[in-house]
Write a structure and sequence with these properties.
Layout: E1 11-18, H1 21-31, H2 35-38, H3 40-44, H4 55-71, E2 76-86, E3 96-108, E4 114-123, E5 129-139
Antiparallel strand pairs: 1-3, 2-5, 3-4, 4-5
Length: about 140
């Protein structure tokens, strides 16, 4: 989508995305090698009663969906940061995720940059929220 297509109050959706155990293990072994992400047997005895995806993996899934669905062919070029990230529920092998994006603000800076503040929420197949974040994206004039 082009920057001009984003409007405050707009709600966009993307997905589904099916999470595989092999993907959880591969991501965690490389980027977040904690036992509850990398060892299904140990994780089954842990506080989550099973293997869960890294929160960073969950963010990566959301980023993939945003880039693939909304940012391809756009003027997007950077992000100055994230206001907050929350992982209210864990992502598990076999989950099917759907993304809901709410445009909070779309404005043009004095230098002509497009500034987009948007909330990304991922939900699993039970409609449980597994990710909530607020991002800012920059677009070339």
């Amino acid at each position: 989508m082009k920057f001009a297509e984003f409007q405050a109050g707009q709600v966009l959706e993307a997905g589904p995305y099916n999470v595989r155990e092999a993907e959880i293990l591969s991501f965690a072994k490389q980027w977040d090698p904690q036992w509850f992400h990398t060892d299904p047997e140990a994780a089954s005895e842990g506080p989550f009663e099973g293997l869960i995806a890294s929160g960073w993996h969950t963010c990566s899934i959301a980023m993939y969906l945003v880039a693939d669905t909304f940012l391809g062919g756009s003027e997007s070029f950077a992000s100055p940061g994230i206001a907050y990230i929350k992982w209210p529920q864990p992502v598990r092998p076999g989950d099917t995720l759907a993304l809901k994006v709410t445009v909070l603000e779309a404005r043009t800076s004095s230098k002509g940059l497009g500034i987009l503040r948007w909330r990304w929420q991922l939900f699993n197949q039970l409609d449980a929220e597994v990710l909530d974040l607020e991002a800012t994206s920059l677009f070339k004039p």
